[in-house]
Amino acid sequence: MKSLHVSVWENKFWLLWEPFVSSIRSKKMEYGWIDSHAHIASEGLVESFDELVSNAKSEGIDKICIICGSLKEIEDALEKTKSDTDMFDLAIGIHPCDVKDAHEGDLEKMMAYLEHPQVVCVGEIGLDYYWDDSNREVQKAVFKRQIEIANEFGKPVAIHVRNGELNAMEDVLQILESHPATASGIVHCYSDTVENAKRLFELGFYIGVGGILTFKNGQNVRDVLNIAPIDRILTETDSPYLAPVPKRGKRNEPAFVRYTGEKIGELKDLTPQQVKSQIHQNYKTLFKR
Question: Which residues of this UniProt protein bind a divalent metal cation 2 (predicted)?
């Protein structure tokens, strides 16, 4: 049996150190913000890569998924992030606006990078009818092929959808219903209807929430967020596009993702740390990182 003298000193020791130990435990459970979709390896941003990362760290961002749309972008991203692989994940895919210049050989070369442990996703892929819908059948074919490749590698997909005179979202939903993404996926920068968001959730998909949420004319995105399960959303910037209020009109960057995250907290009645914690869990569930 321990002596009373020893027990008293053990208690005194714990009383002295308990606040310090509790502080460490608390810090371990704290999360930073996540930017799940940023084009910072693209031309025009990659030249400022170090500055963008420094800005992001100063704003408490601890994870960025870099979207790569070419061999050069994925190679630049791997080189830039090799010293901090915990902070950076990568995605690679052929954007629907680029399919007219895509060849099967190029696609296969790009998708070979899916073997790399940092590459967590196929994207961004999808359909864009805003600028040109004359090649929509080619877009659909390349979209389906990239879903197949994602399935072969067990990777989720990051989907771009933009309507024009024709409804790209309806075509995306029909393709996902007939060609399921078996490792799930996310429709990034979601700005479509509440009804279509519900259809995506039924398919097991996530939605990416970006700067539009903070815009005066972004009520449709706020309506979607109101019905969205908190475990089916991810924060993103889509840098360099769509900077959130109060940075609207500026070049977007990962450092600004906190404004979107804080708006989510306001609408969902959550603290910033609760939002960060949930987004981390969602990210880990989707991307296995």
Answer: 160, 188
